[in-house]
Amino acid sequence: MLKGEVIAVGTELLLGQIANTNAQYISQKMAELGVPIYYHVTVGDNGERLKEVIKQAQTRSNLIILTGGLGPTQDDLTKESAAELLNLRIVLDEPSFAKIISFFEQRKTTMTENNKKQAMVIEGSEIFPNDHGLAPGIAVQKEGIHYIFLPGPPSEMRPMVDRYFVPWIKKQYQGHIFYSKVMRFMGIGESALEERIVDLIEKQENPTIAPLAKDGEVTIRLTAHASTENEALSIIEPVENEIHHRLKNHHYANGEEGIEEVVFHLLDRLQLTLSAAESCTGGLLGRQLTRISGSSKVYKGGVICYNNEIKHHILHVPIEILDSKGAVSMETAEILANENRKLFNTDLSVSITGIAGPDPVENKPVGLVYIGISEKGKNTVVKEIHLSGSRTFIQLRAAKYAYYYLWERLKERLT
User: Which residues form the MoaB/Mog domain (predicted)?
Assistant: First the structure.
């Protein structure tokens, strides 16, 4: 099995002038393939320090991926430092050099001598063409360790990873295929989710289990390597079933389908209609739903009741409630949901009122949100949640939680 490490080369990374998005991208791609990345290291444009970092990587990794330092200037030292450490020569790759010459000829500019440096590669290496730049990527193996050299600019590195490096990785596993399945969860944080399945994570081998928190929800990517897709599915299935059993109240879907799409399909299947009264989210819930083709079958519309005048005059929240309990309160959320359902004559209505920030309101903290769900013939339910983060993130999570509570309500009808 490959054990990966990413070494990002560039003094600008250490100075904080740019973010190390390359390491993130590579790790994501490797996780999809079931190749673990155990270390991220950043080092400046210094040959001696770079060699020390590579020496350390050799003691613990058999896939060492280096990004940056392949350009034409004096401080681009990655290939040269690695070649010296590996006791290998630097040689000219003629196709890469021809591409560089052609590049300058087409632009009718003079190629300086140092541009030839970009076509120099480590002897015995496999070349990854650079479709968006001049310096090729290279792969070389010595004493059981694979060394990968990729350009630093993300606009060059990402397409090279997708088009050449990922197929190269798959070639190392000849006779095996990689198959991934994504499980999606809402209403639980990454740390709480991980705590429920920590024993599975600790003993993972095949399939690998990769949790990821993103945009107010958590996903788990299960990746198996096997001889056939059916074999991979059979490896994934028992782990998937066990995770679902432990987290069934939060596991809302598999694949790339978002929570709003799941709710739409449930509403459509049950032939129910929905409306929304949104304060702090400003119409975000409705926007997310109406991006789905066919959403008019289930979503009648909504009121953006951002200030108290609209809450009172359009959705009939009494002034006494707004004055005594506040616009951000359980009582207001309940009335908004009930009155909005009547206004639109829908089967269900959801209300969202809260404080997205940056400042507290009504002596209540930023991140306090109330979500009400009104349904014909049933008691209205109001949920209180406490969110953190930026204003935009609180709004996004509030809308997603509203969908989560709708999902909880709708799936009850299917049991």
Answer: 5-172
Is residue 244 classed as helix, strand or coil in its secondary structure? helix
Residues constituting the chain: 415
Note if the bond before 360 is cis, omega within 30 degrees: no
Q: Using the Cα atoms of residue 42, residue 46, residue 49 and residue 54 in order, give the sign of their dihedral.
A: positive
Q: How far from chain centre, in Å, is Cα 319?
A: 43
pLDDT of 325-373, one tens digit each? Answer: 999 999 999 999 999 999 999 999 999 999 999 999 999 999 999 999 9
Q: Which of 38, 41, 20 is nearest to 30 (CA)?
A: 38
For residues 165 and 148, is the Cβ–Cβ distance under 8 A? yes
333 contacts 370 by C-beta, under 8 angstroms: yes
DSSP 178-241: EEEEEEEE-SS-HHHHHHHHHHHHHT--SSEEEEEEETTEEEEEEEEEESSHHHHHHHHHHHHH
Domains of the chain: 4-172 (3.40.980.10), 177-254 (3.30.70.2860), 259-412 (3.90.950.20)
